Fold this protein.
Amino acid sequence: MIIYLCVKTHTITGLKYLCQTKKSDPIKYAGSGVDWLAHLRKYGYHFSTEIIKECSSHAELSFWGRHFSSLWNIVNGQDDYGNKIWANRIPETGGGSGAMSGYNNPMFGITGKDHPCSRDQTGNKNPMFGKKGKDNPNFGQKRPGHSLKMKNKSWKLINGKRIYFEKQ
């Protein structure tokens, strides 16, 4: 398994994005960062890709991702005018924003059957844990009043934020 550590550069605006991918063609991979994707939607999907490291394990990717994140200050780096240089919100560790944090982190050793949600308050096995779709007893249930509240509302994106308003 090869994991590519890449620097994407928007060819029109110059904004950069440090990312990782396991895809066989990392050049075509657009990235997944929230700010980076918003930038691509706004200014177009015109970017170049530089593969800076080919890693053979997640640990190696995490090491080099943290190294380059720190070296280039990808979270807080700004140009002389105060504009962000990088579209990254967090250092590149190979886990995404939350994928490797808290209870999902295998380093904590509490995934799967040991996960806190797998047991109820009395210590018995939680019957709903791991049940998806039609197997989940709450499948098809709607939050009370949710559809009524949202039925007469619409939204549009203004400055990257979803603004709700009444339909006319």
